[in-house]
Design brief:
alpha+beta; 2 domains; 5-stranded mixed sheet; 7 helices; 23% helix
Length: 198
């Protein structure tokens, strides 16, 4: 339990990191962070520890009491903003395409996948988000140095530059806790962080 994941927010309630329960308690105890409950109330360590353990789904035991595990903490002095730019890398292409060949639709281990230039470099294709897709080795060999149209193959989806939150970018969505949802879901993030017009 002490090594399970806790979402870390900056003082603007934007997700910037994932840490462990152990580190979250240390940050709270030292006064650098506050726990955030489901109603978006914040608690310092003494007030969080004073809450009844029955209010929490998950608890840890200390020498004389049980304390609820915070799943979201707020760094009240941190103004760091997460990067919006998603790095163009092999891993991020695999994440974007969900380890799925964009021609045949098979989801495979990364060791059985390649990257393919939709418009081949030999025909002037660039190495960009919009021209590189995840591809299985048989489909890559079948396509060769041709475009999908020339090879009579169809793309499952048009490749594009992703717009991910930092946590999705790191591939952490499978371990997302319910308490994280208001801070991570694209619709909720857009609601809270879209600039308002005068």
């Amino acid at each position: 339990m002490l090594n399970s994941a806790v979402l870390v927010l900056n003082r603007h309630y934007q997700p910037i990191h994932v840490t462990t329960v152990k580190r979250a308690f240390a940050l709270m105890y030292q006064g650098f962070a506050r726990a955030v409950d489901r109603q978006f109330n914040t608690f310092d360590f003494p007030s969080w520890a004073a809450l009844s353990a029955e209010l929490h789904d998950e608890t840890i035991g200390t020498v004389n009491q049980r304390i609820g595990v915070p799943r979201v903490i707020l760094l009240h002095a941190c103004s760091h903003f997460p990067r919006n730019h998603v790095r163009f890398s092999r891993q991020n292409i695999y994440l974007r395409d969900r380890n799925t060949c964009q021609y045949c639709g098979r989801t495979l281990p990364r060791t059985e996948l390649n990257l393919d230039h939709v418009k081949p470099r030999s025909q002037g294709g660039l190495t960009t988000w919009e021209n590189v897709v995840c591809c299985c080795i048989p489909c890559n060999l079948k396509k060769g140095g041709r475009t999908p149209v020339q090879a009579r193959m169809k793309l499952l989806s048009e490749p594009s530059r992703p717009r991910w939150s930092p946590l999705v970018q790191r591939g952490l969505r499978p371990i997302m806790h319910e308490a994280w949802r208001p801070f991570i879901d694209e619709a909720d993030v857009a609601y809270w962080h879209t600039e308002l017009l005068p």
